[in-house]
Amino acid sequence: MESTRNYFHLHLISDSTGETLIAAGRAAAAQFQSSQALEHVYPLIRNRRQLMPVLDAIDGAPGIVLYTIVDRELSGIIDQRCREMGVPCVSVLEPVIDLFQSYLGAPSRRRVGAQHVMDADYFARIEALNFTMDHDDGQLPADLEEADVILVGISRTSKTPTSIYLANRGIKTANVPIVLGVPLPERLSAAVRPLIVGLIATTDRIAQVRQNRVLGQTQDFRGDDYIDRAQISEELKYARALCSRNNWPVIDVTRRSIEETAAAIVALRPKLR
């Protein structure tokens, strides 16, 4: 029996940005923790001239080939060359497109990058991202009512990255820090339209993240209280009490990725989907 490889080459060929392909490849690779995927990403491959060097690169570092190529001629070339090289290849979208065609009884339009069209949804995402950047870390509290979601939490609970992730889905997100003994903005307590969610984590997790931040600061930065576990425990107790008093749902981000935290937030208000 062949021994398990501790690494393998993963070639990702796309006629667009490659985001769909990268997500699919990483989701699959994550199921095989004993083998590390060495990613080779080839975006915007839309003609034979662009494709040929990619196939040469695959020949030089054989591995798994995943592709999202709409053009049938190019996808046929990939399939043929991969067979000749003896490497496995899969069209990630083709089975899904075939399923849609069969169910809907209509052919696909075969448009490259169709998911990236600059339509109303695209501009809504841009607007959400601008709003989110303007309302990071408690900025511009006067118009918090315009937010779809407001995240609150003590320092290092992933408020900003989660906000940006939600904004990329078109969800206008503000975040407000909870600081021990410092009153929250009045507009926050008065907000009616937004979904307000508290983010927390374990004391150990926050201490670890804060320690890493302190190590990256200048020598003049005094971080003793910032990384003190007793102090962090008090901050978390204060944050939980605030959320409980205001009936704000709380999500523990300790073992959640940004994507999982965002999904949990969206699940609290289905109309955000």
TrEMBL record:
ADP binds at residues 153-160. Keywords: Kinase, Nucleotide-binding, Serine/threonine-protein kinase, Transferase. The keyword Nucleotide-binding applies. It is an enzyme of class 2 (transferase). Its EC number is 2.7.11.32, 2.7.4.27. It catalyses: N(tele)-phospho-L-histidyl/L-threonyl-[pyruvate, phosphate dikinase] + ADP = N(tele)-phospho-L-histidyl/O-phospho-L-threonyl-[pyruvate, phosphate dikinase] + AMP + H(+); N(tele)-phospho-L-histidyl/O-phospho-L-threonyl-[pyruvate, phosphate dikinase] + phosphate + H(+) = N(tele)-phospho-L-histidyl/L-threonyl-[pyruvate, phosphate dikinase] + diphosphate. It comes from the Bacteria. InterPro entries: Kinase-pyrophosphorylase (IPR005177), PPDK_reg (IPR026565). It holds the Pfam family Kinase-PPPase. One of its GO terms (molecular function) is ATP binding. Bifunctional serine/threonine kinase and phosphorylase involved in the regulation of the pyruvate, phosphate dikinase (PPDK) by catalyzing its phosphorylation/dephosphorylation. Belongs to the pyruvate, phosphate/water dikinase regulatory protein family. PDRP subfamily. This is Putative pyruvate, phosphate dikinase regulatory protein.
